[in-house]
Amino acid sequence: MALFDDVSRLLPNQPVTDLDDYVGAGGGAGLAELLEIDRDELVARVADSGLRGRGGAGFGTGTKWRSIIDTATAEDLAVALVVNAAEGEPGTYKDRALMRWNPFQVLEGALIARYAVGASRVFIGLKERATEARASMAGALAAAREAGWPGADVVELVAGPDEYLYGEETAMLEVVEGDLPMPRHVAPYINGLFTGTANPSLALVNNVETLANVPAIVARGPDWFRSQGTDDSPGTMVFTLSGDVESPGCWELPLGVPLDTLVTDIGGAVDPKLAISGISSALIPPDLFATPADFDAMADAGIGLGSAGFVVYDRSHCVVRIAATLSRFLSVESCGQCNACSLGTSEITALLERIDAGDGEPADLEELATRATKVTDLQRCALPTGEQLLVVSLLESFTEEVRDHLGTPCWSERDPMVPKITDVDLATGEVTFDPTYHRKREDWTYAPE
Ligand SMILES: Cc1cc2nc3c(=O)[nH]c(=O)nc-3n(C[C@H](O)[C@H](O)[C@H](O)COP(=O)(O)O)c2cc1C
Ligand code: SF4
Q1: DSSP 417
Q2: Mind listing the pLDDT tens digit for each residue in 66-99?
Q3: Which of 330, 379, 443 is the pocket-test mutation for ligand 2 (most atoms within 8 Å of CB)?
Q4: Cα separation of 68 and 61, whole Å?
Q5: N or C: which end of the chain has fewer CB within 10 A?
Q6: Separation of 172 CA from ligand 2 center, angstroms?
Q7: What span, in angstroms and rounded, lies between the C-alpha atoms of 104 and 144?
Q8: Residue 434, C-beta contacts closer than 8 angstroms, at least 6 positions apart
Q9: Domains along the sequence of the chain with CATH
């Protein structure tokens, strides 16, 4: 059964929820290869493939595994693998798409990673609300255990909270330990799970899509993996597209395709004003749509690929109102452990809402710029970096429109939603956003309807 076309390697053309179908289509070959190669060769294949993490930062996966192995060996530490399946970033659905349509490939990648770093336990952290993805992964796990896949017996699914921060790796460790999703000071490669003097440990955290790439890299080799994508960002990525486009949904494309291919050629966007990858990144004006969608080219252009969930807004939207909506999301989701982030995100949101209401003054623009500089002070996690990118890009790329808005009430009749995706119909591409989000408050409760 052919599950993939010439480009795709991750998102099949139909759901593969039966183990026999997966194996019949060539699945399981990466795990089988572990009988033939040692751990060093395994890590070398992943490193040589150039695979970079798909959770947002694009860090080299082989390098990450190597450093976990080296530290654990030198200091005799227990290792846990945490599969980051929270997918908290607005605008993305790729991880849930993979878990729903290709759960065995995700699981096989996790089991190979478990073997590589010598993890004694594996936790897959999903949101409780992601019911379909959870059911799909639970079914795959049960079938893998029955089939005797090595390591399947130490895998647990963790149904976590709906908060954005659940996906931040140290907050996820807190949730696995039964606490709230509050980021830690210390990285997972220093302090892992259930750590104490009796149990010094560290954790490897990898994103779902990162791990879904691993089985074929191991089975088919680094050169095969590099046959798609660019030298520095090899492979494909599952892009999510939503907002003012005719063809939303999840699209697997080689890394390095111009952003315009996704937004205009595939998405059919008419007269876009801007796009943004997720929420924690810069606003992208159309004159940057020619940028190749890969980690380095996007970073060099000051925008950022993130987890490749692009939301498009057309010219019927006001950019200040968009920024206020996105900033409010970051302010609501900030956990309040760091003053600059907690105060800064809410003050920036208030300033943007003031300008949107027509009460803005020239001094507010300076105030916005100053707040954006300080919002990251002493940050424990990268949430306020997203706020900074948002404000800086607003002031730099949309200077005229923001200035024109001062003292003038908003002209737009559109009210942008927070693009927090609750579902994508993988057959039609139809995207559903969380209709309750606007009621969420800074203490993470919801105002009554
Ligand atoms: C506020 C915040 C939210 C995040 N949410 C997610 C998420 O939902 N899923 C994810 O894989 N990574 C998320 N990350 C990134 C993770 O902390 C981590 O870098 C990633 O899981 C590492 O996996 P990778 O190396 O395979 O990319 C988030 C980071 C921040 C700062
Ligand atoms: S930077 Fe913000 S979101 Fe991150 S831990 Fe500090 S207060 Fe919480």
Answers
A1: P
A2: 999 999 999 999 999 999 999 999 999 999 999 9
A3: 379
A4: 11
A5: C
A6: 14
A7: 8
A8: 418, 420, 421, 422
A9: 19-226 (3.40.50.11540), 319-415 (1.20.1440.230)
- The predicted pLDDT at position 189 comes to 92
Q: Which ligand is nearest to the CA of 345?
A: 2
CB atoms near residue 339 (< 10 Å): 10
Look at residue 231 and tell me whether its pLDDT is greater than 90: yes
Q: Using H for helix, E for strand and C for coil, what is the string for 45-89?
A: HHHHHCCECCCCCCCEHHHHHHHHHHHHHHHCCEEEEEEEECCCC
280 Cα: distance to centroid of ligand 1 (angstroms): 11
Question: What is the amino acid identity at position 236?
Answer: T
Q: Which of 65, 82, 84 to mutate to test the pocket of ligand 1 (most atoms within 8 A of CB)?
A: 84
CA of 339 to the centre of ligand 2 (A): 8
Ligand 1 geometric centre to CA of 56 (Å): 6
Per-residue pLDDT, 198: 77
* pTM value > 0.70: yes
Ligand 2, pocket-test mutation among 172, 280, 329, 380, most atoms within 8 A of CB: 380
CA–CA separation, 63 vs 59, rounded Å? 8
- With a Cβ cut-off of 6 Å, ligand 1 is lined by 53-57, 59, 64, 84, 86-89, 164-165, 167-169, 205-207, 210, 381-383
